Amino acid sequence: MNNTQSTELLFELSRPGRRCHRLPVCDVPGSDAPLSSLIPAEHLATNSPPLPEIGELDLIRHYTNLSTRNMSIETNFYPLGSCTMKYNPKRHERLAAMPGFADLHPLQHDDTVQGMLEMLFEMQAYLAEISGLPAVSLQPAAGAQGELTALYVAAAYFRDKGQTHRKKVLVPDSAHGTNPASAQLAGFEAVTIKSGANGLVDINDLKAKLGQDTAVFMITNPNTLGLFESQIKTITDLLHAAGALVYLDGANMNAILGITRPGDFGADMQHYNVHKTFTGPHGGGGPGSGPIAVRDFLAPYLPVPMVVKEGDRYRLNWDMPKSIGQVRTFFGNVGILFRGYCYIRTLGPNGLKEVSEHAVLNANYLRSRVAEGYEVPHPGPCMHEFVASARSLLREKKVRAMDVCKRLLDFGFHAPTVYFPLVVPEALMMEPTETEGKDTLDVFADTLLKIKAEDPEVLRTAPHTHVVNRPDEVKAAKEPILRWTAAAKS
Amino acid sequence: MSYVPNTPEEQAAMLERIGVASIEDLFANIPSGLRLKRPLNIPPALSEMELQRHIASLAARNTSTSDAVCFLGGGAYDHFIPTVVDAIAGRGEFYTAYTPYQAEASQGTLQAVFEFQTLMCEITGMDVANASLYEGGSAVAEAVLMALGVTGRTGEVIIAESVHPEYRATLATYAANLHCTVRTIPTPDGFLNPADLKATLNDATVAVVAQSPNFFGHLEEMKAIGDAARKVGAVFIASFDPVCTGVLNRPADYGADIAVAEGQGLGVPLAYGGPYLGILACRGEPEYIRKIPGRLVGQTTDRSGNRCWVLTLQTREQHIRREKATSNICTNQGLLALRAAVHLSALGPHGLRETAELCVRKAHYAQQKLCAIPGVQPTFPNRPFAKEFTVRVNANVPQVLAKLRAAGYLAGLPMGRWYPHLENCMSVAVTEKRTRDEIDGLAGALQRILATV
To answer: Are strands A245-249 and A269-271 parallel, antiparallel or unpaired?
Structure first.
C-alpha cells in the first residue's frame, strides 16, 4: 500500500485560514494595545512569516505517510557499515521524556540538578573505564566535533610545551573523511598514511612520514575495513617515541567493549559515538554525541565545564585555566548521553562484553555467507564489520556496487555503506550489529547471492518497489533547488 | 541483558559455519597482552524495573520547569511544545533511520529536511538554509568559517559583547587554531553602538557578528550594523531568535548575509542543554552556497520524472573533500530539525505571531511589575526588548535567586557570572507559557525577599 495522501509539500497543502495549534488569550493587562506601544515600530515586521497553514489531521497524515517512505532500524535490517545501526531500546525514550530530565534548563543552579549531575558524573567515569583513559569531556555534540575537540586539546598541549612546530596530523587513507577535515579545521596539516595490501597501516610509510613535526596520529581501530590493527602497540610506541600523540577514532568501539581498551593499546585520546555504540537513536541524521576521553596529562586542556563531586554534592567546574574553552553552547547533547547511561546501566560489564562478542560473531557469520558469492578482499576473522567488493560484478556484468545496493532496497533491506572505504574498489561495507539474529542474516545473505545471479538490467534499473527510482543527483547539484518557492511549484 | 537474540544453538551453528571453535577465536588478531583480563569496573546490570526506579530517584533530585516556575532564558526558553511534535518525532521510522544516503529508502527524511530548509528560509527571509547544525554557538563559529571562505580576507572578525557569552566562547575556541583574530566590542549600554562598530571596521574586516534580541534581551540596531558591515565589504552575521520572528524584523529585512540561531525554541525540550539544533541560512549567491557547512537537501527528478529529494552539493563535505571540506560536520541534528519543522507547521503564521506576541506582552508586563518593586530598577532603561530583560536589584543577586528558588521560582540568571560590572543584575525571560498569576507571584516573592534584606 502506498499512502500518498497529504504527501505533497507542506507549502502545497497550505490553505489560508487552517491551523492546528491554538494559544490561550493574553491574560496580562493592556493586551489590546498595539505592539508598537511596547517595541518601536522600526523593529517590528509588517507581516508574519509566510508559513504553511495546515489542519491537525493533515499535518499528522503528512508526516505519518512521509515516515513510511523511510527505511529504519525498527522496520528494516540496516547493515550500514561504520554506523552501528543497532536496536534503540524503547525504554530509553520513555525515561528520557520524564520531566525530571527533559524539563531542566541548562543554566539552572547546580543545587537544582543534582540528579542530572550525578548521572553525568557517573557517565564520565564509565566512559573513562571503558576506554582506559581517565579524563572525560561529555561536551562534543557529535563524533566529528569530538575529533575536533581532541585536536584542540592536542594543539593546546603542544603550545603549552612550546612545541608549536608540530603542525602535522597523520591520517590513514582508510580513515573517515571527518579525520582530515577536523585536522584542517584545528589548524593542522593532514598527511595521508597508506594502507598495506593487508588493509592495515603501512608501518614503513608511517615511519617515513613520522617526524618532529608530527603532532597527532589519528587511527581508527578496529579500522574501517573491520580489521584490528594487530601492530597497534608498535605503532603507538613509534608515535610516542617521536613525541607525538595518538588519537583513536572511536567509531568502531562496538567491537571492543570490555575486550581491549584504547588506553591500554597506547591511544592518548579518543572520542565515542554515543549514538552508535550506546544506542542513541540516529534520528535520520543526528543528534549524535561525541564525548572524548584523554590521558591525565591532557586533562587540564579539556573543555569547560566538567562535572566534579565534592563530598555528596556535584557541581560544574568552570575553573580550568588551561582549558581550550567551550566547543558549543551548554553542557552537551545530554539527551543522548542519558540514553547511553541507561544502556550501560542495563547491560553492565558482562552485557557490554557480550555486545562486542556478538557484534563480532554476527559480522563473521555474515562475512562467511557473503563470501559465497562476493569477494571479501581482506583475510578474516573480521571484527564488527567487513568490506566486500563487487568488482567482479562490474568486470563481468557491468553491474556497480550501487546497483546491488539499490536492488537490496527492493527486498526490504537497507543498503550497506557503499564506495567506502576508498581503498577497496566497489566497496560494500557491512555492519550487522549484535541485535540481529542469525535468521535475519541468512535471509540477507541469501538475497545478496540471489541478486548476484539476477539479470544485470534488473539491477541497473533497481529499485523497482520504491516511490522513487534513482534521483538525478547531477541535476540536483547543477541546478540546485534547495527550498520550495511558489514559482517552482510543480 | 544485551538485546542479543541469538540462541546458544544458533551461536554454535554460526561458529561452525565460520570454522572456529569459539567466539574467543574471533578475537585472535588482538594481541593477548592488550586484552582486558578483568570485567569492566562498572555497575552490574539492572532490569527494566530497577532501571526505572533508579532513574526516577535521580529525577527526584532535580527541580524541573514542571516543578518550579521558569523565568530562565539566556539562549534556552521554556516554550510550549504541541503534542503533535512528540507524536511525529516519536515515530521509529524517523528516529531510528540515519543520514539519507540511500535516497529511495529515505524520501521521508529527505522531504522533511527540504521542508525544514524552506521553513528556515521563510522565518529568516534568506535565500538558502542548511539541514541544521549542532546548536546556536557552533552555528556562529561555522558562520564565521563561511565568512573567511567567502571574503578570503585575513583581518578581524568583530563580535559584540552583547552576543551570548557561550557563543562568543565557542567562537574563540574555533578561532584560536585558525588564522583568525576575533575582536569583541564592549557594550556597556546593553547594545552594540553602531558608532563604536564603525570605528573598528576596515577593508580587511572579515565579518561582523551581532545578536538580536541580544543576551540582555535587547533589540540591536541591526539595520545600522548591517549597513556599516556592507560598507567595508564584511559579512554581516546575524544571530536571531526564531520564535521572535513572529513579530520582529527578520534577518533579511535588516540585510544579514548569514543568519544563525539556536533553534531550541521550536519544539525542542530544554533537556539540560541538548540536543538542540543550530539554524544557518544565508544569501543565495554561488560563493555563499559553495561555503555552506553541513548537509543540504535538494529537489530533483528520478528516472520516471517524479519529483524527489536527495542530499546534494556534497562536494563541499568531508566525506568527499576530506581536508578541503568547508566544515568537518558529518551528522547534523536531523531529529531536531524534524521537530522544528513540525512545530512551525503546527503553529502556522498566526500561531507563531501569537506566540511571539504573548511573549512580548507578558515580558513587558513582568518588567513593569518587577520594576515597580522598591529596590528594583531596569538595568538599561528605554532599551527596547522582546521576551527577556534585565533588572538591577539592591541586594546580592545569587542570594536573592536562592531565596526565589526556595519560593518555587527559577527566577532568572545572575548576570555577574558573565558580566562582572552587572553583578547586581539578573535577567528574566518570559514565554507564552507564563501566566499573569505566575508573574504576579514572582513579583510578590521578590518584593517580600527584598523587604527582608
So the answer is: parallel
Q: Which residue of B has its CA nearest to A465?
A: B104
Q: Which region, left, alpha or beta, applies to residue A426 given φ > 0 means left and ψ of -120 to 50 means alpha?
A: left
Nearest CA in chain B to A32: B361
CA pair distance A52, A10, nearest whole angstrom:
6
Q: Cβ neighbours of residue B96 under 8 Å, at least 6 residues apart?
A: A72, A73, A74, A85, A88, A281, A282
In angstroms, the Cα distances linking A334 to A288, A331, B445 are 10, 7, 32
Distance CA B136, CA B117 (A): 16
DSSP 3-state of B294: coil
First to last CA, chain A: 24
Relative orientation angle of helices A178-185 and A143-160, to the nearest 10 degrees: 40
How many Å apart are CA A445 and CA A436, to the nearest integer? 13
At B322 the pLDDT is 83
Contact B271 A10 (CB under 8 A): no
Q: How far, in Å, CA of A402 to CA of A423, rounded?
A: 16
Contact criterion met (CB < 8 Å) for A88 and B270:
no
Q: How many residues does chain B have?
A: 453
Instruction: Say yes or no to pLDDT of A118 above 50.
Output: yes
**Who's near B341: CB < 8 A, 6+ residues apart?**
A10, B112, B115, B116, B119
With beta carbons under 8 A apart, name residues in chain B contacting A67.
88, 91, 93-94, 108
Cα A305 to Cα A326: distance, rounded to the nearest angstrom: 8
Q: State residue A489's pLDDT score.
A: 46
Contact list, A18 vs chain B (CB under 8 Å): 348
Using the beta-carbon criterion (under 8 Å), do B23 and A361 form an inter-chain contact? yes
ipTM for the complex?
A: 0.97
Distance CA B428, CA B391 (A): 8
Q: How many helices (H) and strands (E) does chain B have?
A: 14, 15
Residues 6+ apart with CB under 8 A from B90: A93
DSSP state of A260: B
Mean pLDDT by 10 residues, chain B (453 residues): 92 98 97 97 97 98 97 98 98 96 96 98 98 98 97 96 98 93 97 98 98 98 98 98 98 98 98 98 96 96 97 86 83 94 98 98 98 98 97 98 98 97 97 98 98 87
Can you give the pLDDT at residue B329? 86
Of B88, B318, B334, the CB nearest to A63: B88
The 10s digit of each residue's pLDDT in A420-468 is: 998 899 999 999 999 999 999 999 999 999 999 999 999 999 999 999 9
Question: For A308, phi and psi rounded to 5 degrees?
Answer: -125, 155
- pTM (two decimals): 0.98
Nearest C-alpha of chain B: how many angstroms from A56? 7
Distance from the Cα of B72 to chain A's closest Cα (Å) equals 7
Q: Which residues of A touch B349 (CB under 8 A)?
A: 48-51, 53
- pLDDT score at B330: 83
Within the 192-221 window of chain A, which residues sit less than 8 Å (CB to CB) from chain B? none
Is residue B101 a contact partner of residue A473, using CB atoms and an 8 Å limit? no
Residue spans of alpha helices (H) in B48-176: 48-59, 83-89, 92-95, 107-124, 136-151, 165-176
User: In Å, how far is A240's CA from the nearest CA of chain B?
Assistant: 17
Q: Is the CB of residue B378 less than 8 Å from the CB of residue B391?
A: yes
Task: Establish how many alpha carbons lie within 13 A of residue B286's alpha carbon, considering only the half-sphere containing its beta carbon.
Answer: 4
Contact B170 A69 (CB under 8 A): no
Q: Which three cell numbers stand for residue A369?
A: 555467507
pLDDT one-digit tens code per residue, A121-167: 999 999 999 999 999 999 999 999 999 999 999 999 999 999 999 99
